[in-house]
Amino acid sequence: MTVSEIAPVRTGRVVVQGLVATAVAVVLNVAVGLALRAALGVDEAFLPLTPGAIAFFTLLSSLAGVVAYLIVRRWSARAFPIIAFGVAAVSLAGPLNLLRAGDADWEGLTTGAALALIPLHILPAVVLVVAFRRRQ
Question: Could you tell me which of 50, 25, 68 has the C-alpha nearest to residue 106?
């Protein structure tokens, strides 16, 4: 077998593994988001903590992470955790910025609502890093 015959199979496995990790991240993030919303008494009017919004943005970010891994692994799969957690850290600017926003900016916004978004930004990165780490 040549390298070109082996690579598509490996890429296919990575894609499947990434899609499974994405599904896990979506389910976990929705569950954690709903639990945090209930525990912190976040108003249902705060749209970023609704199941649909959580699922949609987790899906998008996780799929972007899978694509990033497919690109980065060509040079060094070890760089992926650094990139994933770096992107997750930068994404925290959104929830942290909400701490400065007023109630007029976001309906249902409270300090607890803004803080509840933080784990939802970190969890998908953790799921993808663990999923791709097991592969090596």
Answer: 50
Distance CA 54, CA 4 (A): 39
Report the number of distinct structural domains present in the chain.
1
- The packing angle between helices 111-135 and 3-40, to 10°, is 160
Cα distance between residue 64 and residue 69, in whole Å: 9
pLDDT digits (tens, 9 = 90+) for 57-66: 999 999 999 9
Q: What is the pLDDT of residue 102?
A: 66
Distance CA 94, CA 39 (A): 21
- pTM of this prediction? 0.84
1, exposed or middle or buried, with CB in 10 Å at 0-12, 13-18, 19+? exposed
Q: Which domain holds residue 111?
A: 3-135
What b/e string do you get for 83-104 counting C-beta neighbours within 10 Å, with b at 16 or more? bbeebbeebeeebeebeeeeee
